[in-house]
Amino acid sequence: MKVFTDREDNLKPACESTRMNRLDSDDKGFLDFILTKMPSGLIVFNDKIKVVYMNRTAEHFTHRYKIPDEVAVICGRIFSAITAGKFDELFPGEIILYRKPENSTNSWIFRIYVYKVPSPLIAVYISEEKISDKINLNERRIQFKLTRRELDVLRRVVDGLSNSEISKDCEISEYTVKDHLSSILSKFGVKNRFELICALTQASRSETDLLHEKVGPGRVC
Length: 221
Description:
Blueprint: E1 3-4, H1 7-18, H2 28-37, E2 41-45, E3 51-54, H3 56-64, H4 69-83, H5 87-90, E4 95-99, E5 108-115, E6 121-128, H6 137-143, H7 148-158, H8 163-170, H9 174-188, H10 193-215
Parallel strand pairs: 1-5
Antiparallel strand pairs: 2-3, 2-6, 4-5, 5-6
């Protein structure tokens, strides 16, 4: 279990090389930018199990899915353990939940971290086990001569996002998303999203089969 017992000490290893501990008030916008753009969702709870901070990625998650009930239950147990002085005894290791929310095609990972002083807070980092992470999309970009932006759209199509969600995620208009998607379908020689996913997964399987042929049975790489 990662416990933040002092903010300065917690940041010290990184600060020794980057001197981030010297950020002044003018850099608050930069920190806000980092928290907003970070790929993991971040939700911070206080000891009343109330949300005191949520970044944009976490907002997207909560608009689509429900946070597992276990998260609030575990947060309550952690705060109770801190109050009783038994936190280290009851939570000696990392706290990680793997859950598949209703209507989600993928599982999600919830990593829980505790900041104990001066007043306890709990940070929950949310990340998705994405299908796009299992496919070499950079190879597909080269093979089908996709632009960087088309690759951005393709990655989100693979992960099941709608045109509207892709528009918000990439900060482009929905019309532009449709334009990119039309170009992607044309380059792949397919008619719709379903055929596109089939083409991608088939190519991925072919790569895996070829790798097995090269490596041979019983080898691990």
